[in-house]
Design goal:
This protein has 371 residues and is mainly alpha-helical. It contains 21 helices and no strands. The chain has one domain. The chain has helices at 2-10, 18-36, 41-54, 68-72, 74-77, 81-92, 96-100, 105-110, 113-124, 129-136, 143-153, 158-170, 172-183, 186-189, 201-218, 223-237, 242-266, 270-273, 276-306, 325-337, 344-369. The chain starts with a helix and ends with a helix.
Length: 371
């Protein structure tokens, strides 16, 4: 009986607590959203499983030195995974629409206002300046960038910040439409835009070189993110490194996504996650995303005052860097108003500009706050 009792004490049944149960159900809910609702399944399923894994009573978490999760989490702790994700994104991205209509870059930049609005809101709630910078980047709707910045400024908040960022990326089809409709009229939503001009191969090759030099001069602290993004695009557009481009956008990004998702989910252990600041971060994340969407739309309306060929203001909402979900949402809304209005190619311009913009914003915050 003594041996039996000792065995029972080593099982999870003897160590279970209500907080673990809560987090296990949260993880299962994330997986449910990914499987049944198809909300960013490539992200939410690994994250949800990581949450369940780390919250099983008696298991080794990321904080236990030498454990497998602790070793894998080094990719988050030292900022290895986000640049690799950016390499894959660059190899997937076609910047043609942005090159064809460069004025739409400003819409991607405008959407980053949500970052700085949330930064101020975080300070008002009592977070430190470094923590506020990490939370604010959620407004860019860019999970890898959020992890990259928070791992440097506020490592203790990586879990809730990453979960909030990826959650709102997955909920783009739910969060953005009400904000867009609130700020636009039916007439504005039916504006048709001219098809973008054809882009030459030379322009496609030159763009990542020019883009890298300009953005890194603005935000040198984000050079690794921007460098990997534009390197991936060079591999894609050069036409002589197809094997490398295919590896970057398929096998590599898939492997890193699995590791990133599981380890980020594992960082959401009950004793580290169920805190007041985590709830505040989730509310701030929702505010950040709504603000980013709103400022993108509002700025597009302002731009229309000064230009002859009007842009559909809905595409300003795609300035957040949730690629390509945000552009798809804008296109779907346009189709509801006018079945023959095709906005996807126009919305992709501020959408990819938002990816660059969020990385630049992270570099600026890191440069100011990291010192």
């Amino acid at each position: 009986m003594t041996e039996l009792w000792q065995f029972i004490q080593t099982t999870g049944f003897a160590q279970i607590e209500w907080t673990f149960i809560v987090m296990i159900f949260v993880g299962l809910f994330f997986m449910f959203l990914g499987i049944t609702k198809n909300f960013e399944p490539l992200l939410l399923i690994p994250i949800g499983f990581g949450m369940v894994l780390s919250n099983m009573p008696g298991t080794s978490g990321i904080e236990e030195s030498g454990s497998v999760l602790n070793i894998l989490y080094a990719g988050v702790r030292y900022g290895v995974y986000p640049p690799l994700i950016f390499l894959g994104i660059g190899a997937m991205t076609d910047f043609s629409t942005l090159i064809a209509n460069p004025k739409l870059i400003v819409l991607g930049a405008a959407a980053q206002f949500g970052i700085f609005a949330t930064f101020i809101g975080s300070l008002l709630l009592g977070f430190t300046v470094a923590e506020a910078g990490s939370i604010g980047i959620i407004g860019g709707a860019d999970g890898p960038t959020s992890i990259f910045l928070s791992s440097r400024l506020s490592p203790h908040l990586v879990g809730p910040i990453a979960i909030a960022a990826y959650s709102y990326m997955a909920l783009v089809p739910i969060i953005q439409p009400p904000v867009i409709k609130l700020l636009t009229s039916k007439k504005e939503r039916t504006i048709r835009m001219k098809a973008p001009r054809l882009i030459s191969r030379r322009e496609k090759i030159l763009f990542p070189f020019v883009g890298f030099i300009v953005t890194v001069l603005i935000a040198p602290q984000a050079s690794i993110l921007l460098g990997m993004l534009f390197l991936g695009n060079i591999l894609k557009e050069s036409g002589v490194t197809d094997r490398l481009a295919n590896t970057a956008r398929n096998a590599l990004v898939d492997i890193v996504t699995i590791l990133l998702g599981v380890t980020v989910g594992a960082a959401s252990r009950a004793d580290l996650f169920l805190r007041v600041e985590s709830i505040q971060i989730f509310f701030l994340g929702a505010f950040a995303f709504a603000m980013a969407t709103a400022t993108g739309v509002i700025f597009a309306k302002i731009v229309n005052v000064f230009i002859k060929e009007k842009v559909n203001p809905m595409i300003g909402a795609s300035g957040v860097s949730a690629v390509p979900n945000s552009a798809r949402v804008v296109h779907a809304l346009g189709q509801k108003e006018d079945k023959n209005n095709y906005l996807i190619m126009h919305a992709m311009a501020p959408n990819v500009a938002g990816v660059i913009g969020s990385a630049v914003a992270a570099g600026v915050l890191l440069g100011i706050l990291g010192g």
